[in-house]
Amino acid sequence: MDDATRLEIFRQSLLSRRLEERVMSLAKAGEVPASLHMGAGQEVAQIAALAALRPQDPMLYGHRGVGYWIARGVEPEVILCDIAYREGGTNKGKGGPMHLADPSRGVLGETGSLGGNFVIGVGIAYAEQYRRSGNVAIVFFGDGTANRGQFHEALNFAGLRKLPIVFFCENNGWGLSTPTAAASAVVDIARRAAGYDMPGVTVDGRDADAVFAATRVAADRARSGGGATLVEANVDRLHAHYLGDREPYRTDDEKAALWVNDPLARLVTQIEATGIDVAPIEAEVADRVERAVTYMRAQPLIDIATVREGVYSEPGIVR
Amino acid sequence: MDDATRLEIFRQSLLSRRLEERVMSLAKAGEVPASLHMGAGQEVAQIAALAALRPQDPMLYGHRGVGYWIARGVEPEVILCDIAYREGGTNKGKGGPMHLADPSRGVLGETGSLGGNFVIGVGIAYAEQYRRSGNVAIVFFGDGTANRGQFHEALNFAGLRKLPIVFFCENNGWGLSTPTAAASAVVDIARRAAGYDMPGVTVDGRDADAVFAATRVAADRARSGGGATLVEANVDRLHAHYLGDREPYRTDDEKAALWVNDPLARLVTQIEATGIDVAPIEAEVADRVERAVTYMRAQPLIDIATVREGVYSEPGIVR
Amino acid sequence: MKYAHAIRDALSIELRRDDAVVVFGEDVGAFGGVWGVTRGMTKEFGDRVFDTPISEDLIVGMAIGMALRGMRPVAELQYADFVFCAGAEVFLNTATYRYAHGGLFDLPMVVRMACGGGGFGPEHSQSTEAYLMHTPGLRVCLPSTAYDAKGLTLAAIRSNDPVFVLEHKRLYGVADDVPEGDYIVEFGRARVRRAGTHVTIVAWQDMLRRALVAAEQLSDDGIEVEIIDPVTVNPLDVDAIVASVRKTGACVVVEEAPRTGGVGAEIGALLMEHAFGYLDKPLRRLAIPDTPVPMAEHLVDALAPSTADIVTTVRELMR
Amino acid sequence: MKYAHAIRDALSIELRRDDAVVVFGEDVGAFGGVWGVTRGMTKEFGDRVFDTPISEDLIVGMAIGMALRGMRPVAELQYADFVFCAGAEVFLNTATYRYAHGGLFDLPMVVRMACGGGGFGPEHSQSTEAYLMHTPGLRVCLPSTAYDAKGLTLAAIRSNDPVFVLEHKRLYGVADDVPEGDYIVEFGRARVRRAGTHVTIVAWQDMLRRALVAAEQLSDDGIEVEIIDPVTVNPLDVDAIVASVRKTGACVVVEEAPRTGGVGAEIGALLMEHAFGYLDKPLRRLAIPDTPVPMAEHLVDALAPSTADIVTTVRELMR
Ligand SMILES: Cc1ncc(C[n+]2csc(CCOP(=O)(O)OP(=O)(O)O)c2C)c(N)n1
Ligand SMILES: Cc1ncc(C[n+]2csc(CCOP(=O)(O)OP(=O)(O)O)c2C)c(N)n1
Ligand SMILES: [Mg+2]
Ligand SMILES: [Mg+2]
Q1: Is the pTM for the entire model greater than 0.95?
Q2: ipTM of this predicted complex?
C-alpha cells in the first residue's frame, strides 16, 4: 500500500471514529436514538478492505459502525440523518442505520436478520459475472453471523461458480455476549473456506496494510475469474455491542487491554513516521463532524405522512 | 468385522433389495403408490453403518430406500403397510414411507424438507449427552442435502459441544438430476468437517467392511466423549431418483457400469468365500417378502375417519 | 396448451426478449424441473436456465441480489411449502428490502412454486398463499388456467416488485386455450368464472375446478352460483368480490389450506367491512380443517373440500 | 412483579421441578438474554441455561430433537420475526412432526420470542401470531400481563405440544400482581379485561393497553366497551368472543400486525359464522395497514393503532 492510500484510510478511519463518538454522545443525551452498533476498533479493517476494491464495487455492509459508508464517500450529514430519522438521509426513517443505502456508491444495504447478506451477496456477484462487469462484490459479516446457515449455502455456490466476491469476516471474538469460542467449533473462521474450495486467509485486522494486501489479492483473484475468497480479519470490538449493553461479560481490564492495540493509534504512528502531522487532520475531522451535526439538527424528522411509501414500486408492472 | 456380522448385513441388505424390488413391481402395477425413493446400491452402506451402532441408538434416516428400517428390525409387513397407506404400518397414512417411525427401535423419523434431520439430530444428541445415556445418534443424508444451511448450523454446534453423533453422508454423486460436482464446491463432502473441528472420513460405501469399520470408529469416539464425526460413504444410486424419473440425465451405459460394482454382489462373493451358500438365504428372503405382501394386501386402507388424529397430544397439558 | 407448457412459453418469451432474465432452481436445467415446466429450455437458453444446489435460502436470496443489480431473476422452489426453507429470505428480506432501504431499490424477481395436491405428504402439499398474503411487499399470483398461468408469469417477470406465483400441481397437465405470443394478465383483477345470482363462491386452482363442477349440479336444483376466481391475492380484487356478494347476498370461500387464518378469513372480514347489510346468509368457509396434509391420497381427498362438500354447503346455505 | 421477571420465575420453577427442562438461545446464558428474561439464571442452573450460536434453524430444530428424547426444551428467539430464520423448523418440522409420524411422538417444546414495539426496524418488530395461527400443530400464547406471562409459560412448558409464546417488548418492564409459586393459565380461555355493553374490542398485549385507555375515554362519552383478551390464539376461545359480540352487537379488533390475513380477519370470519344476525354494525379492524414496520419510533407510532385511533373508530361505529 502506498503512503497516499494509507493516509486516506487514516482520514476515513478518523472521521468514522469521531463521527461515531459524536453519535454516542448525542444518543446519551437523548438527541438521536441509540440504535447504532459501535464500530470503533473495526473501522480501520473495514476501510482498508474497501480501499482495496474499486469505488463502484457492490457492497453489503455489516451492522457495526459507520466506516463502510465513510469509505464510500457517504457524507456524515447523510449518515447522521439516517441515524436520527430525519430528512437528508437515504432511507426516510424506514431502516435507520441498519439500512443506509446509496446505489450510486455501491452501498447496497444490509439485511437486519443476520445471514441474508451472504446469499444476497452471491446474487449480486452472479449478476456481475453474468454481465461481465468486472466488478467484485464484497460482503461484510461478523464471526457470530458466520454460524448462520446462509453462510454455507452462499459460500458453496460462490465456490462452485467461481463468483467474483469477497466474503469479509470481522472476527472480533464476540457475538454480542457470547465469545467466539463458545459459539463456533473453529475460532478461525477462515478454516471453513476449505469446505467450499476457496482460499481462506486470516489477517490481523488491526493492521491496515495487512488487510489492504489480503483484500487486494482476493479482489484481483475475483476480478480475473479466479473466484471467491474468505478473508478473516481479527479485530477488537472496543465498545459495547450497543449503547444499552453494560457488558457484564467482560471486565474493564479486558477492555482496556484492547484499547492498547487500537488500530487507529497504530495508523497515527505509521502516518507520523512519514513526517505528516495528524493534528490538522484531527481538527479538520472535528470540524467536519460538527458541521454534520449542525446540518442534522436543522433537518426535520421524517414526515409521518410518508410512512407507507416504498413498499411497492411505481408503476408495478413495466411492459 | 466378523463373519457373523457380515452375514447379517448381507441378509438385511438382500431383504431390503428384494423388498424394494417388490415395491417397485407393486407400484408399477398400480397396487401401491409410487412414492418410495429406491435405495438399491446404498442399502449395504446404510445397513453396515447401523450394524456398527447399538440397536437402541437413535436414528434419523434419509429418504432413500428401506435399508434403515430393515437394519432396525422393522418388519417388512410394517414397511409395506406404511407404503400402501394401510393399517399395520406406523404412521397411519400420514407420512407414508417418508415418515415411518418406531421409537422402540430408535427409528425416530425424518423431515420431508431436506436439512431438518441435521438440527433435529443435534437435539437428539444433546439429550443423549445431557442424560449421559451412552447412546450415539446417527443422521443419514445425501450429498445434495449437505448443501442445506442446517448442515452448517448443526455440524458447528455438534463440533463445539462434542456431541455424540455420527453424520453419515451417502454420496451417490447425484441430487436428483444434478451431479454432485454441479451442486457442491467440493465433491468430497467429508472435507467440510474441517470447518467444524471434527474428523471427516470418506469410505467406499460399496464395501460393507469399510463402512462398518469407519462407523464403528466414529461411534466409539462419540460414545467415549470424543464428539461427532462426519462419515462420507461413496455409493451408487442404481435406480432412478423415484419411479417416475426417466433419468434423461444419465445413459443406460453409465447405469450399467454402476451395476458392475453392486455392493450386494460383492457381499455375495465375500459370503460365499466363507463357504456359505446364499441360495437358501435368497429363498428365505423371497418367502419373507411374499408373506409381507400377502399381509399387506389383507390390511384395510387407513380409515378416513382418522385423518385428523395426531395433530396434537392428548391431554395437551400435563401437570 | 397445457398449464406447464404455458408457463414455459412465458418464461421463453421473456428470456428471448430481455437478457436480464434468468431461470434457476433445483433440477430446472437439463432435467427440466420436477414438474417439467422448464423441460427442453437449456437447449435454447443454455446456462440462463440453470440448476442450483439444494439450498433454498440461496435460491431466494440470490434472486434478491440479482434483482438489486438490474437482473430479472425467476427462481423455482420445488414445493410451495419450501417458502419456509427460505423463510428469512422470503418473509423478511424479499418483503422488506425495498421499504427498509427507503424505496431506493426495485426487486424485479419472481419465485415460482408448486402447491396443493395429494400424495406428497405434510411438507410437500401446502398452499401457502395466506402466509404470503399477510406479508406486505410480496405480490401473490394463483393461476387457475393455462391462459392465466402464461399471462401472470409474463406479468410477474415484468413486475418491478417481487412476485410469488403458486402453480397448482394438479393443473400442470390441464390444457386450455392459450394465445401464441405476448399478453399480460393483470394483477388485482378477479375473474367471474361463472355468472350466477344466488350465491357467490370464491375459489381458485383445484378448488375452482371443483366449484365449477358443483355449480352445474346445483344448477340442476335451481341454484345459480356465481364463481369468482381472485387470480391474485396481493393485490386482491376486493371490489369484484364485494360486488358479487352484494348481488347474491351469500358467499362461500373454498380453499386448499388450513381454515384458520386462511384467505377465506380475510374475505370474510372484508365482506363484513364492505358488504355489511347485503349478506342474507353468513359466510361459509370450506377449507382444510386445521390439520396438516397427510401423505395418503385417499386421506387428502377426505380432508380437502370436495365437490360434494361444496354442493352440500351451498344447499344448506340456500335452504 | 414485572413481566420479564414473571417469565423468569416460571422458567426457574420448571427448571427446579423437572430436570428434563433446559433453556437456551442466543445470549440467554450468563448475559441473561437481550430482554433480560434469563438474567442471573446460570448462577442457579449452570449449563441448563445456555448460549447457542447465531443459528436459528439449530435453535428450533434442536428443540424438536430434545423433545423427541423426552426433554422439555425452552428455546428463545431474540425476535418474533426470526420464526422465519428457522422457517422450515417452525412451520414444517415442528408443526408436522407429530402428525407425519402417526402421532407416535410428543413434542413438549416451547419457543419464546419478543414481538411488537418500535425502534427496531422491519425485521425486528413483527408480531407473527397470524402466521403461527395458520399453522396446525402449533399452540400460540400472547401474554398481556405479568400474571399471564408466568402462568402461560408454566403451562407451555408442561404442554406436550409445541408452544410458541410471543412476549411483547413493551411489556417486559410492566409490573402487576403475580402470585408466588406455581399456577397455570389455561390455554383457550379468553379474559374479559373490561366489562361493557356497547361494543366488544378484541385486543392483546400493547394494543390491549391502548384499548383499556381508550375505553376509559369512551366511557366519558357514555360508550361502555367490553374488552376481550384472547390470551391464546391457538386454541382460540371462539365462544368467549362470540358471546361478547352477541351481547354488544359490535366488534373492533385491534392488532399490531398487517391487517390483511391477520388475527382480526379470522375473528371477522368467525363472527360471520357464529354471530351472524347479532351484529348491528360491521366489524372494524385496526391494524398495521399492510406496511412493514419502520425503524423510526415516530413512524411506528403513526402506523400502529393508537389509543386515539381506537377512540375514533369506536365513536364512528357507535354513531
Ligand atoms: C438472524 C439473527 N439473529 C440474531 C440477531 C441479533 N443480533 C444482532 S447483532 C448480533 C451479534 C452478531 O455477532 P457478530 O456476527 O460476531 O457481529 P458483531 O456484533 O460481533 O460485530 C446478534 C445476535 C439478528 N439480527 N439476526
Ligand atoms: C428442502 C428440500 N428441497 C428439495 C427437496 C426435494 N428433493 C427430495 S430428494 C432430493 C434430492 C436429494 O439429493 P441427495 O441429498 O443427494 O440424496 P439422494 O436423493 O441422492 O439420495 C430433492 C431435491 C426436499 N425434499 N427438501
Ligand atoms: Mg463478532
Ligand atoms: Mg445424492
Answers
A1: yes
A2: 0.98
